[in-house]
Amino acid sequence: SRLEDTIKKTVSDNPVVVYSKTWCSYSSEVKSLFKKLRVDPLVFELDEMGPQGPQLQKVLERITGQSTVPNVFIGGKHIGGCSDTLKLYRNGELEPLLSEANTK
Amino acid sequence: SRLEDTIKKTVSDNPVVVYSKTWCSYSSEVKSLFKKLRVDPLVFELDEMGPQGPQLQKVLERITGQSTVPNVFIGGKHIGGCSDTLKLYRNGELEPLLSEANTK
Ligand SMILES: N[C@@H](CCC(=O)N[C@@H](CS)C(=O)NCC(=O)O)C(=O)O
Ligand SMILES: N[C@@H](CCC(=O)N[C@@H](CS)C(=O)NCC(=O)O)C(=O)O
Ligand code: FES
What keywords tag this UniProt record (chains A, B) (predicted)? Predict the structure, then answer.
């Protein structure tokens, strides 16, 4: 579908992409983590995109199997949600992924 | 107002009250914590109460100064949100508050 192609292009063209909601603390935690790591993700606030928000969330679920926010991609790869991202960070695996994605 | 009186009565009549949203992970964390502590809170899922949900959230803000969920009361006292509750738990202050409220 066209929306699916848009998402695939977005995540391959941008090193870090976060699908988020402005009111959601888990989404805020992920955005703060990237800010702390001095990474500037491309963020889509699904609650501020009118009817396109829920549509994107549906298509993301189709592509990634994940229906929730935040939904995080690094280097075109689906990372997961807030807990997944924090886990990688605590294991020291996040920063290597980020450097790899940024130098592409 | 009538809604304000309802809330005040609810939190004084019930040892633990949580105003929550079903889709919210911070709300889930607070509910899980109480479950782990074998406490059975009275939970209001503001997203499942039709137009009353947003109204309750507004009145809670007027009463407590807190506009967000989860909104937690123990022994009739306003505790705060997820971070506040977790902080009290980690400081060992939550369980005394809970015992005190449950034996009223
Ligand atoms: N374990 C997941 C939890 C994700 C989750 O439950 N997200 C909630 C918001 S905190 C959600 O997307 N709820 C449904 C919605 O907002 O559409 C994570 O760490 O990201
Ligand atoms: N630090 C607060 C954060 C509370 C917060 O930002 N809650 C969000 C949901 S996670 C909220 O209520 N957003 C507005 C809304 O859902 O109406 C806590 O620990 O509870
Ligand atoms: S909506 Fe509360 S943590 Fe996501």
Answer: Redox-active center
pLDDT in tens, B37-86: 999 999 999 999 999 999 999 999 999 999 999 999 999 999 999 999 99
Identify each DSSP E strand in chain A by its residue range.
16-20, 42-45, 71-74, 77-80
Residue A49 CA to residue A31 CA, distance in Å, equals 18
Q: Does B24 touch chain A (CB under 8 A)?
A: yes
Q: Is the dihedral of CA B52, B22, A31, B86 positive or negative?
A: positive
Ligand 1 site, residue A28, Cβ cutoff 6 A: no
Angle at A45 between CA A50 and CA A101, to 5 degrees: 140
Between CA B94 and CA B104 the distance in angstroms is: 16
Cβ within 8 Å of B, A 31-90: 82
Residue with tokens 């803000």: B61
Residue B64, CB half-sphere, CA atoms under 13 Å: how many? 24
Q: How many angstroms separate the CA atoms of B34 and B16, rounded?
A: 9
pLDDT, one tens digit per residue, over A9-56 is 999 999 999 999 999 999 999 999 999 999 999 999 999 999 999 999
Outline where chain B has alpha helix (H): 2-13, 25-36, 52-64, 82-90, 94-102
Query: How far apart (Å, rounded) are the C-alpha atoms in residues B36 and B38?
Result: 5
Ligand 3 neighbour B24 (Cβ under 6 A) = yes
Question: Which numbered atom of ligand 3 lies nearest the CA of B26?
Answer: 3
